[in-house]
Amino acid sequence: MTVSLFDQFMSPTLLGIPLMALAMTLPWIMYPAPTARWLNSRFLALQGWFINRFTQQLLLPLSLGGHKWAALLTSLMIFLITMNMLGLLPYTFTPTTQLSLNLGLATPLWLATVILGMRNQPTHALGHLLPEGTPGPLIPVLIVIETISLFIRPLALGVRLTANLTAGHLLIQLISTAAFVLLSSMPAVALLTSTVLVLLTLLEVAVAMIQAYVFVLLLTLYLQENV
């Protein structure tokens, strides 16, 4: 039973070729490209409005130096939301349930913010490792603790996204299996379970969007510390 539950998180293959790359290119294929026409479709107008609003909210805590990252962070947000939402469809695979992919997204971006801070303002960047007014005996301990907390940031980003999506998918599969099994013996309980399943699916839609936003928001905060 345990093996069958976690089979949904295995990377699918076709003729021995992993299909994760195909799943990752799907978001870029789905969205239409802007056109040179004076009047765009309603979907393009809605897409442009959403991107503009999100970019404005994203750049609020950032100084002017961090505005160069707007295109990258906005693209990452749309990419994560699309993959998370597509994974809620039946018979689909969610690449963001793989810790390797999430760490592959989090580690280079986090490292870029650290390198940016070390290059532009090394004194300020290293000053985060030692809070002001620290007693002398606690200085070595706090430096070690702050260094560990610095290097654990990409791991926390990846694990948070993976754990939330994995837990939601497992709950959906468990409740849907229970509703199917109870349908023949206890229809009333099966109907109640199906109602819970619908509510849980709506909750997972919200979680898919919120987790993508939290992932990008934390990267923005890391960037603000080093800009």
Percent of residues in helices comes to over 70%
Structural class: mainly alpha
- Biggest sheet: strands side by side, in what order? 1-2
Shape: globular
Mean pLDDT: 82
Oligomer: single chain
Round the Cα radius of gyration to an integer and report it.
22 Å
**Percent of residues in β-strands:** under 5%
Count every helix, treating DSSP H or I runs of 4 or more residues as helices: 9
Provide a descriptive summary of the structure in words.
The chain is mainly alpha-helical and 227 residues long. The chain has one domain. Helix content is 73%, strand content 2%. It is built from 9 helices and 2 strands; from the N terminus they run αββαααααααα. It has helices at 2-6, 20-30, 42-59, 70-86, 99-120, 122-127, 139-151, 153-185, 187-226, and strands at residues 13-14, 17-18. A two-stranded antiparallel sheet has the order 1-2. Strand 1 (13-14) and strand 2 (17-18) form a beta hairpin. The longest helix has 40 residues, at 187-226. The termini are far apart. The mean pLDDT is 82. Pfam families: ATP-synt_A. It is a multi-pass membrane protein. This is ATP synthase subunit a. Keywords: ATP synthesis, CF(0), Hydrogen ion transport, Ion transport, Membrane, Mitochondrion, Mitochondrion inner membrane, Transmembrane, Transmembrane helix, Transport. One of its GO terms (molecular function) is proton-transporting ATP synthase activity, rotational mechanism.
